[in-house]
Amino acid sequence: MSPMFVLALRSIGNRRLSVALTVIAVALSVALLLGVERLRNDAREGFAQTISGTDLVVGARGGALQLLLYAVFHIGNASNNVSWPSIQHIAALPQVKWLVPISLGDSHRGMRVVGTTAEFFTHYRHGDRRTLGFAAGRAFAAAPDGLFEAVIGAEVAARFAYRVGQQIVLSHGSLGGEGGPRFADHADKPFTIVGVLAPSATPVDRAVLVGLEGIEAIHVDWHGGAPIPGLSIAPEHVRKFDLSPKSVTAALVGLDSRIAVFRVQRQINSFANEPLTAILPGATLQELWALVGIAERALLAVSALVVVVGLAGLVAVVVASLGERRRELAILRALGASPMQIFALLALESVLLSLAGIVLGMGVLYGATALAAPWLAASHGLNLVLDWPAAGEWRLLAAVLGASLVASLVPAWRAYRYSLADGLTIRI
């Protein structure tokens, strides 16, 4: 170990309190900067991996972002429904390989209820085109055998300690939470859990999946969004009714060839019988990032300003200590240290403090991530990954270190200008 390095460490050790406070300030600013960057990247990665292998998302005429957020991510307000004959027409198009309808609107203890078909478990892809796996049980069967069967996501099972074989009650509307407001419960027609999905880091983890016929069955004695007074049809009698869906929220569409995606999109958008919208999930996500990009950059700029304030505090502490260290520096000069060596000593001290702040900040970030990750995943569906810093994070750390090196030149230059006579002169 070089004498310069040892001297810098001992000098820092003589000012433990001020140094510790300075390092903590730098660490918190670095943790905030990296936290914002990681949160942004993980959010984008989570959104991008939610759905893959789906060429088009079809819904009622409206905004593309609203359709994507509501139908795929279960965020935002409900969009208009699409009639079932229109869905059948789209499924019959020669370029369409598969179609999975989705019906939203009900909930269970704050979790979305998704009405769909058993093909959902076959054609829904996430990440690098991975299918949904089962931690326990199986997919719900087709009606009428699986009329009141349900498959729950991993987070639903973990949060409420559900297991295969238990019965659950769905609520009308999507406002019902754990003790929150809801319109009414379909208590007379409970569903039996037949499967628990493995974690997939998608909105499916926080969903209850049932058949489309099951959605129709629990509303057979309802009209206009409310129960019909004096009418209650028992579950065993519901099977006698026509439970074919009247409408659905949206549909996920896969094509035989991606070359035909724009042609099919134009066909659906110009459908004469009903105003429809067909969107490309990837392109719509890019629109979303373009909208939130300004907010992301603003938040990152604020975090960078916090880092600048932390480095400014570091410089202030080192400069303020120069008055107390005038004789120390003068003694070093008397022992043969050159002005450039004094310059290097002060710069090295500042850089060491910055490095300590960066290391501590990363420790704070990883600790906070480990503590907050389960809550963020359960409450907001955001999955934070404990991993080595990405390339963008390394660039930010290099920028912070470079900025600290530049900032260290201020106290180093002042120390450089101190002369031996100035250090030994008694000031009155």
From TrEMBL:
InterPro entries: ABC-4/HrtB_transporter (IPR051125), ABC3_permease_C (IPR003838), MacB_PCD (IPR025857)
Transmembrane region(s): 298-322, 343-376, 396-416
Entry keyword annotation includes tRNA processing: no
UniProt domain ABC3 transporter permease C-terminal: residue ranges: 301-419
Topology within the bilayer: Multi-pass membrane protein
Record's subcellular location: Cell membrane
Keywords, comma-separated and alphabetical: Cell membrane, Membrane, Transmembrane, Transmembrane helix
GO cellular component, one term: plasma membrane
Domain MacB-like periplasmic core: 20-213
A matching Pfam family: FtsX
Designated name of the protein: Peptide ABC transporter permease
Species of origin: Thauera terpenica 58Eu
